[in-house]
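cron nightly-structures :: item 1 of 1
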Amino acid sequence: MRYFEILTILAVVLIAAGPGDIVINEIMYNGPESGADNEWIELYNTTGSAITLDSSWGITDGEGTYLFEGIDIDADGFLTIMVNVHDSVPFPFTPDIDATLCGIGLSNSGEEINLLEGMVEIDGVDYDDDWGADGDGPSLERIDPLGPSNSEMNWGPSTPDGGTPGVENSIYSSGGDYPPDVTDIMNTPENPIDGDTVTVTANITDDGTITKAMCFFSVDDGPEDSLDMADDGAHGDGPAGDDIWGAMIDPQPVGSHVHYYLVVEDDSLYSDTSWTYAYFITSGDTVDGNVVVNEIMYNPASPMSDNYYEYIELFNRGSSSFNISNWIVKDDNDFNTFVIPAGTNLGPGNYIVLGVNPDSIEAHYGITDVLGPVDFNLNNTGDAVRLYNPLGTLMDYVHFSDAEPWPTEPDGNGPSLSLLNASFDNNDPASWEASSGVGTPGALNTSVEEKPARPEEFAMLQLSPNPFNSMTKLTFYLPGGARTTVEIFDISGRLISKIEPGYLPAGKQEIYLDFGDAGSGIYLVRLRCDNSESLERILLIK
């Protein structure tokens, strides 16, 4: 057992820039040449000093990433990045950087682009083709570099066809009034249990004053209730005045399904309404039944991108047969249900596949006996698969996401979400990976025979208690000896401390983290062991 104390001051400064110092300023995602995908991105330095983009900097669309190799952006300067070039149509200008081999592809229907330095997001844009410039010739230009990145009001089509790479945008203007910017919405704990108060937080900023921030929620699709959010240090929001707003939802009984969303308004009466998020209250115990959710295809890739190819696979990890007639499958919406037909038996070591369109799945994979049709689709940004017996007892559940720490490749890139080993806790992101190929419905998951069973597997990152008020314990397992580093970040992604215990032997490891005088709020703990790493959020409440 080892003990280390976390420093409560900024221990190491890694970044040379802060969020907003360099912005994504112009995007050509659907150029003027019909059928020619000459795509590029322009960055702009909003500061009065040159900034060096070294190898800790990267730009990504979530599928491909380009890492910079030491390039300066002058004060008030531009940097153009070529991400795709057509074979037969010459690129229209000479870019500063050729990133065509990194796998970035700008979708004509919309895409999220992020500029990162280490774990710090310097800027991010989630554009939509409704913002303009969708194949008519213009690029998509930012109006005010200091305005919000994800407000449609701050973007528009360039005046000239082909855009304005490397120079001031044709629709540039400054000092506009924009709606509030609401990001980093989360609930803590992420998987609450009976008795947990759930803190909902968000990063909320505006060019004026926030006059209203509210969290609307409902339990089991019942009547809607609301809570005022605040940035006063008393609502689970961390230090007062840090732009992290919070509200606290009272504990709910085991089995409750809570949906919530945020509504934020500023002094100009501009408002923003968030997506709806959800969490599920469990007993805190892993469901130990032998029928488990073993594989999920929630966002098939083209040409199978039609929802007809979605499927859920159940597996019997026990030694005897189960009659699962009239068992009920739900997603995160209690009104979305599929009842397994009468006479359905699941033998030991066998699989059952449920599909939106059984005929399509059987034809594509060459299998039979797919059950369905399941008349609901799984949400591509994250959803749940819940399995109940006919008496309404929860038999198994998985709440998955398309974002880390869950595997991200199953989100439209081809693979399914595949359980590493049927003995693992399948509600733990570390228990899953992307399948090889396009999934294995009705058959052994592609990686099962290659992965060790826990507790020998790395990435079992546990922090307990969480939330905590002073000290928490980090527990993890090493399959073999490894050099280990623990890094602590604040909610903005800034490194506040690094602990280097050095080489640790194989087996169970425990490190006590004492936060001393650190302020209340959400922190990130990253564990690195040789070439493996795991990340977890923790909530400090004082």
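cron nightly-structures :: done
The helical segments are 358-365.
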